[in-house]
Design brief:
The protein is mostly helical and 143 residues long. The protein contains five helices and no strands.
Length: 143
């Protein structure tokens, strides 16, 4: 008989806890939706009016260098074609990925260069950046 009373007490306690959620500390309401902070809008860079400058133009390449550069161009072009054809990407995603591939291409070509060629390319880039900064100073209003 005592086993029966113990079981009855346990069952009654469980029923009581299930019917009185406030007393058990367990809430049966729907979980609240978690509010996520708003995503910051991506920074959109203004498009350049001028075409990209080829910092490697005019360099004399060996046949081995030219073969490596051609392979780099082919590889990057195939990747860029895939991005262009991907309909799942938004236009800003496509342009970002394409710009990234262009940077990868320039870096890989730079790795193929001799130390002298690298020095020449660095000088061209520095000169171009200095000219761009001067141009920006002319067009920005004085503070």
């Amino acid at each position: 008989m005592s086993r029966f009373v113990k079981r009855l007490g346990i069952v009654a306690g469980l029923v009581f806890l299930c019917t009185a959620p406030g007393l058990s500390g367990v809430e049966r309401s729907q979980p609240r939706a978690v509010q996520h902070p708003p995503k910051p809008s991506p920074t959109v860079r203004p498009k350049r009016d001028t075409p990209a400058v080829d910092d490697f133009a005019g360099l004399k390449f060996t046949q081995e260098q030219q073969a490596k550069i051609d392979k780099i161009h082919q590889d990057i072009k195939s990747r860029m074609d895939l991005v262009q054809k991907d309909e799942k990407l938004r236009p800003e995603q496509k342009s970002g990925m394409l710009e990234g591939y262009r940077r990868i291409e320039r870096a890989q070509i730079f790795d193929v260069l001799t130390p002298e060629q690298r020095t020449e390319v660095r000088q061209r880039v520095r000169a171009r950046h200095a000219a761009e900064q001067e141009e920006n100073k002319k067009h920005s209003p004085p503070k």
